[in-house]
Structures are given as C-alpha cells and as structure tokens.
Amino acid sequence: MSNSKLLERIEMKREKMLSLSNSHALTSEAVINSSIELDALILEYVTTTNYNRKN
C-alpha cells in the first residue's frame, strides 16, 4: 500500500476514534478497539517509511 493511501487510512481511523470518544467513555471497548486499530496503522506506516529510507 502506498504511503499516501496509508496516511488517508490513518486519518480516517483517527477521525472515527475521536467521534467514538465523543459518545463513549475513553475506556469503552469501542474506543479501545479503534485505538488499537489506529496504532496498527501507524506502526505499519512507520515500519514502511523506515524500510524505504534504508533501501
């Protein structure tokens, strides 16, 4: 996946998590799961960009 597409997905997930946090407690399962998914996308982005810099 291209970095720009991954950044779009990160931004969409971030917006979804913020929206969930407005209607649910920060410790709710919905917000935590959304945060975990966002973390995974960010890790994928960082891993990909670091790999591309080394090569």
From TrEMBL:
Record-level Gene Ontology MF annotations: protein dimerization activity
Superkingdom in the source lineage: Bacteria
Name under which the protein is recorded: Spo0E like sporulation regulatory protein
Lineage: Bacteria, Bacillati, Bacillota, Bacilli, Bacillales
GO process annotations (BP): regulation of sporulation
Organism this protein belongs to: Virgibacillus dokdonensis
